[in-house]
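pinned: reference chain
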Amino acid sequence: MKRINPKSHDSLFKWLITSFTSEFFAHYFPQVRIGQYRFIDKEFISKYEALKESLKGDLFLLTEAEIDGEFREIAVQIEHQSEKEDLSERVFEYLCYVWLLKKKPVWSMVIYTDDAVWKKRVSGRYWYGFSSGHPEQFFYFDVIKIKDETSGDLIKKQSLLCRLLALKANDEGSDPEKLVYEIYHAAARMKDHLTADQLLLINQWVAFYKKVPEQVLEKIKEEVCMELVETTISEHIFNQGKAEGKIEGKIEGIVEGELKGVRGQIAILESLCRQGILSEEQMRYMIEPLRQQLDELMKKQILT
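pinned: its structure tokens
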């Protein structure tokens, strides 16, 4: 199977938010109480089929979340650009679509992940209408700029999300090797409480944003006992599917176990595609041999 790594800034940030959702809101919006949540990007795209093409250039994340006891929609746009751009019109357009989908209050935000240090902030509002009594009516949204925070401050926090963001924040005066060490040291302590997806994300994130040589990275991972954690998506899919298959195989037999394992790998690929970690093309490429394997196992099951 072809080894594919999601080496895309936008995809990694979307993966980060979907993997550490509670930590994300706790860090950026501590005054807001977030309860249950679910991601509804697929529902959004299926309703607005015509948006598929226009959304290709954007990384859009749609969540239905319980805020202070009431479910609301959260529209997140993630931007990684070398130059800052006023996205207020585009964000307002998404607001309209999201509101039409659920007809509930919408909370919009844009996350800028570019490396520039801004001297002047972009607009967080859009003039969308007027009336005789209110000549200027504005739509407001939150703007998050990752470089606004320093790596030194973020790495000291208990949140693993904050420690990962330290690699993308303003790292002036920080030691790159220490940043990586602190991330893996924290992950090693929390390893038993992290999912396989989260551990994979940590490896992918550090590998992409680190500013240390590969041999230094491997030395750090070995030092904190993280060297055996999965590092590629294909390795993750294979191991997760294999684990599910082994459990099922002990209960219902070898063929049933293999079927469960392959179905598990397909489900993981579909999940990664929904999160934006894999493109539809990459998912289809990786699923095709699995579906062939599934057909062969089903025929085998019928014969036995």
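why pinned: The longest strand covers residues 70-79. Confidence is low (pLDDT under 50) at residues 1-7, 243-253.
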